From TrEMBL:
Top-level taxon of origin: Bacteria
Single annotated GO MF: hydrolase activity
Keywords: Hydrolase
Protein name per its UniProtKB record: Glycoside hydrolase family 15 protein
Amino acid sequence: MINSHYFRSITLTAAALMIGCSGTDVDVKPQAQSHLSDISERVAQRTFPSAFMAWNPVDMAEQYPLDTLDQRIAAAAKHDLLWEEPISQLSFDTPLVLGLEWQQQHAGLATSFNPASLHKALENRKKLLTLNPNLVMLMEIRWRDAPNSYLPEDSPFWLLNEDGTRVQGWKYGPEPYYMLNYHHPEFLKRIGDMSRLAVESGVYDGIMLDWSGEINVVKAVRHAIGDKALINVNIHDDIEDGELFAEYINGAFMECNPSKLCSWSGIEKALDFFESQFRSPHINGLEVWGERKDLARMRATTTLALTSSNGYVLYGDVNPLPTPDHLHDWYSFWDADLGKPTHDRKVLENGLFQRVFSRGTVIHNPKGNPESTVNFNTPHLRVSDQSRGTEFKIGSLDGDIFLAL
């Protein structure tokens, strides 16, 4: 979702009543978190490039059909990080990959999951991890707004206007969305309880929070799920939010449309901060919106993520399209086998960003830097066009992967 700082203020005293002072004195069932024991290894063992899936899948029906569950699982397993949110996705008729559903007419009041969906989701998790042992899976928990069916109309958890009507939320859903009253201490507890249930189900490795997060919501989630489970929050390239949330979260969903939402230089600076200051393991995911055929923009996004982080990348559709958000192609560029990074980013004399991996080198040419040349001592394969050589030109706001021969 696009950044929104609506209702940023909160009654701290009320919030403290349910989350405690430190947010660390949690009572989480150890046996319910056994599936989290290898999270750090899954994050660390993956090779690069490393793509992620934000709610919606690869949208290439001929290459990656999605008609059956097994096909959807196979397409999802190409990514190393994914999250889903059943309430909104199912209302858009978007089939889920894991498929866990809340057991309640009003999902916002649920205290358990549909048993059949839980059984199936655990099976689907096993299938996904068989195809991709390094995959990390999160569940989005609604905290800012929700569809009309999320709660009874007279629930105290809705945010109300002065005239008693509900405050309008997101405007593009299949049913009306209304703002949630996350000032309400009992609703903060609900957010925490739902987060704990999602993690203790054994299906999800952690929680995703959309809409820039809110500090007491973030604290409530961390308090509820304990230290091992992951939290990712959609804070774009906002370092101020990163500073606020750093001790509680593992990663940022950097949903960006540079020049309108975020900037290329802001993304670079934010990646530097998020990768160094958030809790480990880090699960930062950079998504840039763009036209699917704009391969230079896709390469610029991918190579910026590769040179400036150990994070995940997505090049997705622009949100204003009349289709579900975050649909995307799968690019052969992402199939290059770079291995793992062996060095940090280096800025060359001509302004190019360079990072060396075990099987190749990534070059990113930042915005504003002119077309520049990169030279290698030995022959390399340029992934974008399969050319071979020792000298290559990189256009402004572009990049490439070079595999050692």
